[in-house]
Predict the structure.
Amino acid sequence: MLLTNAPVYNFQDARECIVWYVQRWKIEVFFDLLENGCKVEDRRLRTCERLKRCIVVYAIVAARLQHLTFLARQEPDAT
């Protein structure tokens, strides 16, 4: 595994950098859905336990939305 700012010496190193970069953007989209789509930061929960439960539920929702978005882009004419 390459570290951040590690030199790229061959095609395999370059490919690995691209694979990791693609994953980074998937994570960015997931957190954008969590924060802006689910509005998780707008919740004013008073206990840590409630916040954990809320984040778990919204994380599932955000992951599902991300997956559905991916599917819709793969098959735009699907119902």
Summary: DSSP finds two helices and no strands in the chain. Residues 24 and 53 are 25 Å apart (CA to CA).
